[in-house]
Amino acid sequence: MGKTDWKAEAKALKKKVKALKSRLEDPAADDQSAAKPAKAAKPVSPLAPKDGFPKLPLIKGVEFSAVEAGVRYQNRKDVMLVRLAPGTAMAGVFTRSSTRSGCVRDCQTKLATRVPAGAGAAIIVNSGNSNAFTGKVGDEAVAAVTGGVAEALGIPASRVFSSSTGVIGEPLPYERITAKIPALVADLREDAIDMAALAMMTTDTFPKGAAATVQGEGGPIHIAGIAKGSGMIAPDMATMLVYIFTDAKIAPVALQKMLSRNVDATFNSITVDSDTSTSDTLLLAATGQSPAAEVKGAVAKAFETALHGVMRDLALQVIRDGEGATKLVEIRVTGAETDTDAARVAFSIANSPLVKTAIAGQDPNWGRIVAAIGKSGANADRDRLSIRFGDILVAEKGWRNPKYREEDGANYMLQDELVIAVDLGLGRAKRSVWTCDLTNRYIEINADYRS
Amino acid sequence: MGKTDWKAEAKALKKKVKALKSRLEDPAADDQSAAKPAKAAKPVSPLAPKDGFPKLPLIKGVEFSAVEAGVRYQNRKDVMLVRLAPGTAMAGVFTRSSTRSGCVRDCQTKLATRVPAGAGAAIIVNSGNSNAFTGKVGDEAVAAVTGGVAEALGIPASRVFSSSTGVIGEPLPYERITAKIPALVADLREDAIDMAALAMMTTDTFPKGAAATVQGEGGPIHIAGIAKGSGMIAPDMATMLVYIFTDAKIAPVALQKMLSRNVDATFNSITVDSDTSTSDTLLLAATGQSPAAEVKGAVAKAFETALHGVMRDLALQVIRDGEGATKLVEIRVTGAETDTDAARVAFSIANSPLVKTAIAGQDPNWGRIVAAIGKSGANADRDRLSIRFGDILVAEKGWRNPKYREEDGANYMLQDELVIAVDLGLGRAKRSVWTCDLTNRYIEINADYRS
Predict the structure, then answer these.
(1) Does residue B142 share a domain with residue B120?
(2) How much is the pLDDT for B39?
(3) Cβ contacts of A14 on chain B, cutoff 8 Å
(4) Residue A451: closest CA among chain B residues belongs to which residue?
(5) Could you tell me if B237 and B320 are in contact, meaning their C-beta atoms sit under 8 angstroms apart?
(6) Final residue of a domain: which of A271, A292, A320?
(7) Rounded to an integer, what is the distance from CA A144 to the centroid of its chain?
(8) Which chain A residues contact residue B365 at CB under 8 A?
(9) In this structure, are residues A314 and A208 in contact, taking their beta carbons and an 8 Å threshold?
(10) Whole-number Cα distances in Å, A102 to A108, A134, A161
């Protein structure tokens, strides 16, 4: 952990001063409207992967397409379709919201339905309108869209899954989607997963993808996943949607178990703002078209580890694109009496507006961490817990570590990626969760009148 | 040496960036700097009571004083003392935080102690340092301060209650307080409650007071209370402290029951940011010096109603001074199956950053309310719940009210005080809670480096 490069820091700040000054002098520069297209491009999150969207492997049996349907956004692709070859095993996990959307309920019903022998499957997703809290009209929209896809692809409607993300409570103009189904079907290609990732973005500032390859018996097994979301989740425009594809040969029941086992430590361990969407959806499709034999034994272990890696990678990318985020923060809780207590403490810290604003201000304000532990409801003993920033021991035995120097904490806080480690000293349960800071930009994004 | 001190340079530049940013947000703010003292006065909350600090009745048997002890703040009173006459009954409720401060633990122990016959009592409060998470040194500080007051006033230490509010984790320089005890004692006066209210302020922008008078048998009974706090509560500098005084004749057990009965619907129904302090304290002292007879029967009812009114008034003043608040919002939940469900839904809405930022943006974004209901964990049925802004029916039967017009919602949102009413349509349980909006100013206050 190198010492802070104050020179570099000063230079970066100088640039900032210059930029701010020019904005002050020329307020018009701010609204950019004259020179730019109607909606100015959003600045990409400073935490975005440096190399952009990764090169994902083709997954045999999976094809993608995307179109401009004008559901809400203009001049960009906003509907994507995925066709999955006959024999594909499907698994999914969904938001637990009691006001979840019609799409989510529909997916849940269909996953519980007996699969017709040899049936293919499809996923259709639109951005701009979440079709949530739209009553029976909303359910009719889901039926129209999934029914239209089923007919066009010649598969049962019970095998067409759908997601919608965007504003809540507005009727979905679904005819705009159904009108584009022929174009979507005509355009299906194996190598268009990046377009699908783009089409489902809302407040996202970058498309999210991750992949892994495992050696199976007789050949490689590939996994490729895409995600959208800027929180867990800002329900208005920032639902989390995740689709992961693999050519593994694996039965639906085993696939679902594997997915469910790994969701707590990945997608259920991230939080931007403690708000959960009405539409969060994670679907995993296994086409079985890898040359490798059925996934079992040691290969199953390796496959699960790789799947976990892809899930975690995508989950962290969602946090990296957290609305207004400038810091990626891991809250690592150890020494709790129970798993529930570990999770309570971790989320209490990760969701504390005071902890998150302190991080935004690069303030090593560990007193707010103490307060967040205290309010969590978990068993904690002031005299046994310890708090670390990375490797720096900040507090233990009921008070500040006498050797802790505020400058060390302040230097640590300048980094883009932080680890706040709390050991409760009571037991062996642990939990890590990831969050981001809470900045003015979050308020700006979310206090903006919808338009 | 002529070498550039890049660290100092970076720090200076950071300040510049901050100043420029605030000018960008509020160009007018800048020109005030010349006229104001070094630390510009905080702007008073736009929601502050229009008539300023109310005229509170004198309570017989209660005296106040305040001094500048320089615990952390300079050039302002930061320690206050209250002397309570012999025979005073004491009651209290406190934060449930597992990392609560030494003062709070000390108060709790003392309230559970048998009161020496005819003993007086005292309360001493400092701002600027919360003495929380300061280990055994912190406990010694509490003993030194309360012991010093006990000796100076000639009362048992078990009758001296203390509170500290301010930064967490810094050792309390308690000698600065004990050195001022003689001055505090010398200055005690019945008519100085307003000074006491000022001395305990931290991020507060106005002092908070409320009063009531009840006709007892044989004469009037007075109640006067003061509070500090900008949240429920921002733990760093915004602990909630409340002291209520009455001359009622009432036994300690009856007083405690009355206090406990009324705290859920008042102080436990407010939230600025969902963060709970390590130091929240509410003390109620009854001196028994009213000419009226002992409080019972119909007078007890009237007294409890008046006490509830004072508690509620002070609680709402805390929200009116919520950090960065521009709107006072009541979340009124009815038709829940259970009290727990009603509270869950109310707090889920009141603590949702997305709901609070929408309110800040005057955006009638009811979809976010739907999402907050959904994530609360309470029983809810999309097709039975309804949402109102004041009297405006926004949504019911699973979708938007067809007669609802967005302009009506937008107009309603322009008001300073809002009611968001949710009926779950499932049962008879209800709960109202109060909150404020989440603005850039909250981020600024809390992302500021402590200094």
Answers:
(1) yes
(2) 42
(3) 13
(4) B363
(5) no
(6) A320
(7) 28
(8) 236, 450
(9) yes
(10) 10, 8, 11
Same-domain pairing of A72 and A158? yes
Minimal-distance CA residue of chain B relative to A383:
B135
Domain membership flag for residue B47: no
Residue A1 has pLDDT above 50, yes or no: no
Question: CB distance A169–B400 less than 8 Å?
Answer: yes
Q: How much is the average pLDDT of B64-83?
A: 96
CB neighbour class for B405 (10 Å; exposed up to 12, middle 13-18, buried from 19): exposed
Taking CB atoms and an 8 Å limit, are B354 and A169 in contact across chains?
no
Of B130, B145, B139, B154, the C-alpha closest to B180 is B145
Q: How far is B33 from chain A (nearest CA, A)?
A: 18
Question: Is A407 inside a domain boundary?
Answer: yes
All residues of chain A having their beta carbon less than 8 Å from the beta carbon of residue B360 are 443, 447
Tokens encoding B89: 């009954």
Helix runs in A154-272, H state only = 175-178, 181-186, 193-199, 252-263
The pair of structure tokens assigned to B194 is: 């307003």
8 Å CB contact between B305 and B312: no
Supply the ipTM of this predicted assembly. Answer: 0.72
Residue where a domain stops, chosen among A268, A303, A320: A320
Report pLDDT digits (tens) over B322-352: 888 899 999 999 999 999 999 999 999 998 8
Answer yes or no: is pLDDT of B306 > 80. Answer: yes
Which DSSP state fits A157? Answer: G
Q: Exposed (0-12), middle (13-18) or buried (19+): which is A114, by Cβ within 10 Å?
A: exposed
Which residues of chain A neighbour B138 with C-beta distances below 8 Å?
Answer: 399
With b for 16 or more beta-carbon neighbours within 10 A and e for fewer, the B35-74 pattern comes to eeeeeeeeeebebbbeeebbebbebbbbbbbbbbbbbbbe
The span from the first CA to the last CA of chain B, in angstroms, equals: 30
Question: Is residue B227 domain-shared with residue B188, that is, in the same domain?
Answer: yes
Cβ B265 vs Cβ B345: under 8 Å: no
CB B163, CB B227: distance < 8 Å: no
Per-residue pLDDT band for B11 (boundaries 50, 70, 90) equals low
Pair (A313, A346) in one structural domain: no
pLDDT in tens, A233-267: 433 445 688 899 999 999 999 999 999 999 888 88
Q: Which CATH number fits the domain that encloses residue B175? A: 3.60.70.12
- Residue A417 sits at φ, ψ, to 5 deg, of -125, 125
A17 located within any domain:
no
Domain presence at residue A346: yes
Quote the CA–CA distance of A251 and A158 in Å, as a whole number: 18
- Please give the average per-residue pLDDT across B180-190, as a whole number: 97
With CB atoms and an 8 Å threshold, state whether A367 touches B277.
no
- Residues spanned by the domain of A217: 62-320
> Residues A209, A238: contact at Cβ < 8 Å?
no
Q: What is the pLDDT of residue A145?
A: 98
Test A99 with B373 for CB contact under 8 angstroms.
yes
Can you say whether residue A247 is alpha, beta or left, with left for phi > 0 and alpha for psi between -120 and 50 degrees?
A: alpha
In the A/B pair of chains, how many CB contacts fall below 8 A? 267
Average the pLDDT over B290-296 and give the result: 94
B165 part of the active site: no
At residue B418, the 3 state secondary structure works out as: strand
Among B129, B94, B100, CA closest to B236: B129
The larger pLDDT score, comparing residue A337 to residue A271, is at A337
Q: Is there a contact between B352 and B360 (Cβ–Cβ < 8 Å)?
A: no
Q: What is the pLDDT of residues B146-179, one digit of tens each?
A: 999 999 999 999 999 999 988 888 899 999 999 9
The residues, any chain, with a CB within 8 Å of residue B96's CB and separated by 6 or more, are A375, B276
**Chain A CA closest to residue B232:** A375
What is residue B400's three-state secondary structure? strand
pLDDT value of position B205? 87
